[in-house]
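Feature request disguised as a bug report, sorry. It would help if multi-protein outputs had a clear separator. Right now it looks like this:
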Amino acid sequence: MSFPTSSPAAPFAVLATAFTASDPETLHLLEKYLICVDQNGIISAVIPPADPRYAEQKSAYQQNNALIELGDDQYLMPGMIDVHVHAPQWPQMGKALDLPLYAWLQDNTFPLEARFSDTDFARRVYAPMVDALLANGTTTAMYFASAHNAASLALAEICATKGQRALVGRIAMDNPEQCPPFYRDSSAHQAVDDTAQFIRDVQTLVTPQSNLVLPVITPRFIPSCTDDLLTGLGELAGQTGCHVQTHCSESDWAHEYVKNRFGIHDAQALHKFGLLTRQTIMAHCNFLSDDDMDTLRATGAGIAHCPLSNFYFANSVFPLRHGLQQPLHIGLATDIAGGHSPSMFDSCRHLLTAACALNDGVNPQLSAKERGRPGAKADFIHAFWLATGGGGEALNLPIGQLAPGFAFDALLIDCQSPDSNVIIWPEFDDHRDVLQKIIYNATRCNVSRVWVQGRVVTER
């Protein structure tokens, strides 16, 4: 997939020490590189100091007043990509996380999401949410909205206006056995029609940065949807080629529900309904079998790894390293409000904790040899990849890497910002150590500037 060629700005370059990854195992340290960005916000060249073009290009950008030169304690990295956010749950963030998933949805989430029939209320929620995510360094978000076209379109408009790259889905949910009467689609036919209309509305959205926003077909998850709805949405996915998002094998309850209903796992059922494509992102996927992973690999569908909410609601840990070894397309997510933090840096840290817990085990009643799943541990490079390039790969978009042909979605990380927890010791720390400290210790205060497709969208 390529981007439209709207012109956001004049060409410019950033002279910086930068970090980027091209796969889960490969970190690139770009010391004092010249990263050139064209008028469409796309990286046109990444030039090392030893390149014969370096001095000439640097001078040319300087003469045009188009060179941004970072300081010694400032670093450039790709923007963070959050591949699973429940936008209407923003007011609920940090609340009711002691409940099991079914009760959390029925008693807290569904009543809150039903309020988004009021589009003015939706705008009051969504505008500060997008500001907060951008300030935390999330340049791209894949959003579940609510089951309301007007409010969902308002989210798309706000993202475009504020300059966040966004994939927005109007939730479809019609199963009267699982959805409350005050919050569900009136019929499968109506839900499919409303989804199709939402896709058209987003595709014709007219704002200066509307090219940043894509529509997403969004069956909430199998328990919320009748067979007719899943069939209709699968057909719509085939007709439109749009992205698809849903939940897959998240918890014992959800996983067993699908097995009892269809006699197969979520991934296989979604595949039968035509909902697994190269444009699909499935959240959680904690209980995937190897056959399920084979199906994901064959279809190209991606996974949104939600390490924190898995602790709260799944009572399990997604086998990340096993999934990467298949290999599967995997991105990282906050799962607001199933996760209590809007920071993808926090999600990186939760990923590392979850992988360690799976690797080592947590039950002290078992021997060390019985307790864990050896080979499951991940490191900070895996976390960095999932939060950046892995998310872009999962979404099938050219984002998440500082490389030619990729959108310049980027963060300026200032390790000397006021109240910074990133403490660099030059006599002890090489650049690899610096990135590790950023992943483990960076907070919102370190995100000094954020670019999306070459435009500055927030700055401290």
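(second protein starts here, but nothing in the output says so)
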Amino acid sequence: MTITPEVPAPASAAALSFRTVDLRGRDLTLAGLRAAVPRAQHQTVADAEQKVLDIIGAVRTRGFAALNELALKFDGVQQEHPRVPAEALANALVELDPAVRSALEESISRARRFADGQRPRNIDVELGDGALVSQNWVPVARVGLYVPGGLAVYPSSVIMNVVPALAAGVESIALASPPQKDFNGLPHPTILAAAALLGIDEVYAIGGAQAIAAFAYGVEATDAGPALEPVDVVTGPGNIFVATAKRLVKGVVGIDSEAGTTEIAILADSSAQPALVAADLISQAEHDPQAASVLITDSEDLAAAVRVELERQSAGTKHSARVREALAGPQSGVVLVEDVEQGIAACDAYAAEHLEIMTADAPAVAARIRNAGAIFVGDYSPVSLGDYCAGSNHVLPTSGTAAFSSGLNVTTFLRAIQVVNYSKAALQEVSGHIVSLSGAEDLPAHGEAVTARFQQDS
């Protein structure tokens, strides 16, 4: 495999390590492009798998006792039962900052309008007289929604998980978020307030892989509190352990995707504004030291100007150390391409969770992208808009999985059920074909099940 050449950063930006990968003059296959673009080199699912298997096994066999032990081990919280009391939800909403409440309400309103428009329609197809095949979209009965804790607070993720489930018509919704030592073992009060705003009253102070296990398999009631009933679908982002747990329970329950640490790619040409490009790269680097921030451009001048802006802006932002660590990681950097055409190919190979297009004729360029969780077009559609108030969903596939999976949406919580309704005459019309095909497959009883319906007529 060809090793991607590393280009040293300019001396003026030496204080901030933000590497460059140069793809110019190279005719790379899709596999070559995927190997060349920056990727995180952190703990893999295989590394986490045994730890997660142990957690799942403990929750399945020892229920709430195991959950209490894990809360103490990982969160430093002593629990008797993880169910959040109704009064805690009500109090969190009463005490919520009015400005934050207003912002959450606006985000909910926009997300609802978009989600309501996503629901697919039922269809009936008449294939002949008396031959009707239908497809009906039916919501799952119960879902478990995970909202991470950690370095930041994510009430917006409450909205992104709950709103499409409600729009789909799900009747039973449970939400889990890690217990917080600073809040008497409950999830962060802003998360509780967001749940209360949306009418979700089944909330649990459970974090990590153990939350996914509890949702997938359920937990029996104890003297300390009621059962946690198993769900049909688990959604929500999280760290490598949450992603691994979702992979391991897939098949027991449905999942949205194995969403991991956030990432942004920006396809930009010489027309882009360096200060805006840098601001958007920093906005995602702020999430986590492992966050990925990638600039794909055919302009060396833009790349140099963005480096200067990254140095300036990252020094002044609140989480400067976290941002600079993320920008310096192997998952971040500049990808220099020959032209926008090669830039589009690099974007499709990278399959970013968030992809911004800052080029001339950005809408036309965006329309050519095949692989991305969400695409943000032009100077006034930053990822931050999608994180909070665009109306779109910010629970999106990461680590290249956008090449084959979608972001969270209404259909995540729906199943397409096919209904077949044939009359006697309609079945008789195709009976000969069924007999022929069943014979060809050496499954003659299939054909006999059809001919049996007409023997009384002969």
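Even a blank line would do. Unrelated, but nice: The two ends are 70 Å apart (CA to CA).
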